[in-house]
Amino acid sequence: LIGSRAQPFVGYLERNVSHKLHLWRAGAWSLAKQHVLTGSLHASGTGIGTVVPALLMRQAFCQAFKYRALSACRMHVSMQKMLAKPAERLLQCTTVPAVQWLVRCRHVRSAAIDVVDSAAAATPALLELPRGRKKFKPRTSIKQLLAVLPEGGEPLHVGQQVEVRGWVRTVRQQKQFAFMQVNDGSNLSGIQVVAEPGIEGWQLLQEGSISTGASICACGRLVASPGAKQAVELQADSITLVGPCDPETYPLQKKRHTLEFLRGIAHLRPRTNTVGAVARMRSALSQATHTFFQEAGFQYVHTPILSASDCEGAGEMFQVTTLLSQVDPAAAKAAAGQLEDLQQQIAAQGAAVKEAKAAAAAGHDGSRKAGVEAAVAQLKRLKERLQEMEAAAARSSLPVTESGQVDYSHDFFGEKTFLTVSGQLNGEMYACALGDIYTFGPTFRAENSNTSRHLAEFWMIEPELAFADLSDDMACAEAYLKHCVRYIMEHCQEDLAFFDSMVEKGLLKRLTDVLDKPFATVTYTEAIKLLKASSKRFEFPVSWGVDLQSEHERYLSEVVFSKTPLIVTDYPKNIKAFYMRLNDDNQTVAAMDLLVPKVGELMGGSQREERMDVLTKRMIDSGLNPKDYWWYLDLRKYGSVPHAGFGLGFERLVQFSTGVENIR
């Protein structure tokens, strides 16, 4: 277990553990101490550092004995007058991980330190033992290697020996040099690796084994680059091919690909500049989201993905069921055909039974009576077979109720279940207990809208503010969006410059306007008047009571309000969800939509209806059964408070921040 020199002691434990276990459990640790300090320890010639792990590895030892044996070891070390070292020494020791467990145990911390120091001094061979699991050390990324000093703008790591691991974007080979552009995904530009003849791996370049798409590991010195396109480059000492790539079939070559083409190779498109930059922006916006709400004192809650409730009341939900896995159309069709044959056979056999009985009644021949019995037995067998086939046919089709509807009591959850369209209703439960909360998770909508801004699966950010009204909700939405924009402009400068140059000209100006300009606010009624007064002809006609379409929203934010984010409030109640608070005019609700250039609606929120009687009536008017939402109504029954919140489609935020036209 530990080493050849520890085997005598381990063998001793194996021979004696069975009949001495009850003594150790009873607290007779002095017997164990005697064996540790005398015969076994000194006979084996090992240090304490090898004994303690052996003790700990014996599962038969009770927890108390672990502590007692270690105390004995500490006594032994004290007699040797060994010096104690810092606690970190133990974690660097080459003994097995069991000793590390000793350090974490507050009862034996100081003893463990003495044990390790004593073992290291008394038994140098311990240093030759295999190490345990290595400590995690994050890989140094190319982005970190390209970092510059804040005061002078000079590269921070020039002159240092570094290692780069990534994927080759391009290879240019000359007689005396080879240039490779390597990217590891941490930034847009990657780093240039320069190789010369004679270094380890040069032959791979000569053979053409290292090509676009291949993964490599390059080691060398980071030096200032004489080229104008990069400040530093890696002067390679060695290059290792980690994963080859067939250049003949690799679909990502050095040219610009359309986004539609990249959707067909979704497994490789993260390696492209555009999709890679979008992924980094998404990561940064996620971090900005958590930073904003956590610093504001919000609690992060996780809401269910499976739900029986339709939050929006629109019925556009993906249903989840296990009933279809039990359905076998082929078996059902075959069973239906067999049922018809059996029914015909039963009818014919029933007639045969009647004839046999009539014949037996007319005469007194015993053989006729036996024929009746045989016919009846055959009829019973056919009926039993019919019952079996009917049961098989039922198992091969969906269960139905007496009214002919699908019987979901046989389903996994015993009722209709869907993928959630929103975590808001569950979020309100936590807001009415924890105060301000936010959710951030996947949602699903079966909305058949094949547009550039709709998805069937997307992530939603849904904060909920307790003791708040619509004005608080609007202030939170504006502060959150400005925080996100400020965060990416600070942390994603290279990617934003790429989007501004290659995707949307003027993106940086648009984002800067979000920070500098106050958000405009109009009511829905005022917005309708502005749209009617415009000379633009819209595809969808404008009138009071219709839901604003994307063309209306973008026209308001981009043209009427000069590319300024716009908040539209007080929508008609008939086009908004049941949970939004009814205004005093009984025609509109305390709702708000945040409209932004390029996207249209980015956020939608409202003050929630906290009055139980009004909420119940709104449910009925929306075609919902209040009994299905009894728990939601209970929140208004027990300590109801004014509260508000909004929902943000995270992909739309990414679309707004990058300028990418198609959300997919």
What does this 3D model show about the protein?
It is a single chain. The chain is of the alpha+beta class and 664 residues long. The protein contains 23 helices and 16 strands. It has an 8-stranded mixed beta sheet with strand order 6-10-11-16-15-14-13-12. A 5-stranded mixed barrel has the order 1-2-3-5-4. Strands 7-9-8 form a 3-stranded antiparallel beta sheet, with no helix packed on it. Strand 1 and strand 2 form a beta hairpin. Helix 2 (29-37) crosses helix 5 (63-80) and helix 12 crosses helix 23 (650-658). The relative contact order is 0.07. Residues 1-6, 17-29, 31-69, 75-117 and 122-129 have low confidence and may be disordered.
Main beta-sheet annotation = 8 strands, mixed
Q: Largest beta sheet: what is the strand line-up?
A: 6-10-11-16-15-14-13-12
Low-confidence stretches: 1-6, 17-29, 31-69, 75-117, 122-129
Which band does the percent of strand residues land in? 15-25%
Number of strands: 16
Q: How would the global form be characterised?
A: flat
Put simply, the count of helices is 23
Taking Cα atoms only, what radius of gyration do you get, to the nearest Å? 38 Å
Mean pLDDT: 81
What distance separates the N and C termini? 57 Å
Q: Which structural category fits the helices and strands? A: alpha+beta
Helix content: 40-55%
